[in-house]
Write a structure and sequence with these properties.
mainly alpha; two-stranded antiparallel ribbon; single chain; 296 residues; 4 strands
């Protein structure tokens, strides 16, 4: 014998009402998504998507910080580049003065005038050597001192490298040069040498030949500093492009997870509204009282 199971009108009505309530909830979600432009209004809407958003935002925050680090490093290195270029120009002027002083055709007074120009160049180099960046000595390493060189041309900074972090792997790029890496060090640095050259011009022109050899060595050091600064600038520029591309990719990924696909959401909302109206009609028909309901 076959048993036929029949669903009562009241049970069917309750099921229909549950379906209507679900449709109402989904329509409310879709309306929020369309009006706000955000696919996830609260974590409970999409736990997996919420976790992805949090992960992407954290990665995006780190990338933004790396971009700031790179930009700050470029600013500092470009400031150093300007100074180092000027330093090289001044050292080449000093070299021209030494060559002029070697000539046997000039007088002692002329050499004395050349010596005075060398003194001016030395003072100018000292100003460049004590250039600052963000209130700290540009060529002083990590020193907390007010200047990289004292009035006598002695280096009072340190050789501690100043670097900036550029990626998640912990890679860093050095964003400075210290004074000795530009001017040389010890008794043969640029300041001591220019003092010696001025003295040779005033009283010992025969020493100028040896002075020129020493000056060429200092110029070579300064030119090396030029190349080093330019190399680091190029490295940071390349990293800036890589970081910018990464930030763009993260923004796209975040947009895909977090933001509403308006066309899709509007279409689904329209379908839900149509289904909702149909469900309301069906529920109303089922819930209407019949003659049998009154006879019970």
């Amino acid at each position: 014998m076959t048993t036929i199971s029949r669903m009562s009108s009241s049970s069917q009505g309750l099921n229909n009402m549950d379906s209507v309530a679900g449709m109402q909830k989904r329509m409310a979600q879709l309306q929020e998504q369309v009006s706000s432009g955000k696919a996830i209004q609260r974590a409970s809407d999409n736990p997996g998507g919420t976790q992805s958003v949090l992960t992407l935002r954290a990665e995006q925050a780190r990338t933004i910080q790396y971009t700031k680090n790179i930009d700050n490093g470029l600013l500092r290195l470009n400031t150093a580049r300007t100074q180092v270029d000027s330093i090289n120009d001044q050292l080449l002027k000093a070299r021209d003065l030494v060559i002029q002083g070697q000539s046997s055709a000039i007088s002692a007074n002329t050499r004395s005038a050349l010596a005075a120009q060398v003194d001016v160049l030395r003072s100018s180099l000292l100003v460049a050597a004590n250039g600052d960046f963000a209130g700290r000595p540009l060529f002083g390493g990590s020193t907390s001192a007010a200047t990289a060189y004292d009035a006598g041309g002695n280096f009072v900074g340190d050789s501690n490298a100043v670097s900036t972090r550029v990626d998640d792997s912990g890679s860093t790029v050095r964003i400075e040069l210290n004074g000795p890496e530009i001017f040389g060090s010890g008794a043969s640095d640029a300041f001591a040498l220019l003092t010696t050259i001025a003295a040779s011009l005033r009283g010992a022109p025969a020493d100028l030949s040896a002075n020129l050899v020493s000056l060429d060595s200092v110029i070579s050091t300064a030119r090396g500093a030029q190349s080093t600064v330019l190399s680091r600038i190029n490295q940071l520029n390349e990293l800036h492009d890589v970081t910018a591309d990464r930030d763009l990719g993260l923004a796209g990924a975040l947009n895909a997870v977090e933001n509403t696909d308006l066309a899709k959401a509007v279409m689904e909302l329209t379908v839900q509204q149509t289904g909702y109206q149909a469900a309301l009609y069906a529920t109303a028909k089922v819930m209407q009282p019949s003659l049998m309901d009154f006879l019970k």
